[in-house]
Structure formats: C-alpha cells, structure tokens
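User: Predict the structure for this protein chain, please.
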Amino acid sequence: MFNQTLKRPMFRRGGSTGGITSGLRRGYQEGKSVNIGDYISRPPEPPRSTSLNDFLINFGLNMVGNAPTGNIFQTAAKQAQEPFGQFQQARAQDRAMKYKHAQSERQFQLEIYKAMSDDDKIALQKEIDYLMSEHGLSKGEALNLAMPKYRKPRDPGEQKLLDSEYERDQLDKEIALIQSGLSSETEYISKEQAAKIHKFYEQADDQGWRYEADTPYIDFESIKEEWRAAGKKEEHWLSPEGNIAISPDQQETYIPGLYYVDHFNGNVYQVGPGSTELIKIDLDEIKIN
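Assistant: Here is the predicted structure, written as structure tokens:
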C-alpha cells in the first residue's frame, strides 16, 4: 500500500518533480541521515512566543484608543481592545493544547520505537531517510507517514485512556474559551464558574432551552443588593422553592422564557412571564434527551 502511494503522480520523479512536491528542499541527497531514535526521544518544538508582537499590537491599540481627540479610527481601536485580548487568550490556549497533543503523540511513537526489533528499526530508518531525501519531507512528516506500518493495535484499555485524556483536553479548551469570552473589564469569570456555564450550555442544548449566549448567568448579587436597599428581607424575594423575585431595576435585563444559570452554584432558572421572577428548575426531574 505504501509503495502504491509513492507511485502516484505527485511523487513521481524524472525531470521537474511538479505537483505538490515541486520546489521542496532536498537536504538529504548527499547521504545525510537523521537518527530517528534520537529525534523521537526529544520533545517537540514548543510553539513560538508571540508575546512581543502581542505587546506591540496592544500598545498600538492603546495609543490610538486613548488619544485625546476622537475620530472613527480611535473609536474602532478602543472597541477592538477587549475582543483582541480575548482572541489572544483563546489562541494561546489553542497553541498549548496542540503542543500537549504533540507531546503525547511523540511519547507514543517513542514507546513503539523501543518495542520494535532491530530489523524493524533499521527498516524504519531507511524508509524515513528515503522520504526525506527523495520527496523533501521533514523529519516529522516522514515519521508520521512511515510509522503506522510498524504500529501494533493499541490495547483497548490504553485507547480508552487516550480517548478520555483527549476529551478532558477538549473540555478544558472549551471552558477556557467560555472564561475568556465572558470575562470583561467589569466582571471576571473564574474557571470554576466557566465550568458551570459549560454544563449549563450542554443541558440547554440537550433540552432545547433558549438562553442568552453572551450573558447566560444571573447577577444574583445585584438582585440581592437592590432588594436590601429597598428594605426587603430575603424571605420577601426568595421563595421556599428557590424562586427569585427580580428587583425592578434588574427586570429589563432578563427575557421571559429564557433560561439562566447561577454560575456560583450551578442552579438553573427560567424567567417567568413579565420578567419579574426567576423560576428555579428542578434538574433531578428533567430527563436528558
């Protein structure tokens, strides 16, 4: 199967290579070789830091956005600061996840390499050298292309563990995106709160609940403070069932029929008619579809 792949037009030689391999560097035609055992043993190259570029961009935005005179460009720069900061945080999280995945894959390749016979190691080395010298592939590309034929099926228990680790990494990434997306200069969402909001999103999607994606959580402290300022005791606005009477100044914030979550304890509420009450949902009685 491997030889058939290399006979495709994109890999044929003779005159100009053409196709996807045209212009590729042939750095190993002079007999140079890369020791695959040493290469696999080294960790993957960390993602390049963009901190300097990020600083310069943020500095430029601040310089324009905070200028004493106002115009459309300054306004645009000022408005871009917070979204761009969130984008930077999400991008950094994505780079970290990719690097972590590369580390895991490299470790797995190393374990395969250690378990190979000497003959298989020599064969793998020759195949990688061939791919690099004749087709201009990088060490990583050649290794990823050649290694699968030497891979034995993973143990079911090991595969289950790897799958669970991947799912956990994906969950961490989604929670980090929620945290960065909902945090602002006036309100910070902790990782624990973002995890509760993530669970709420999943429940809402399973049940078909409508919710406000930008602000899916209730501002319980503001409601409490306004009722306290109005001279109301807790029993006046918090029912034994856990329903919350929305203070007058907060009522326009909540949309009737939509669902919200208390991102401190995970309680879910639906806004009742007229936006005057948050009705607590008994999650134990809900059957997930």
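The chain has two domains: 2-159, 210-285.
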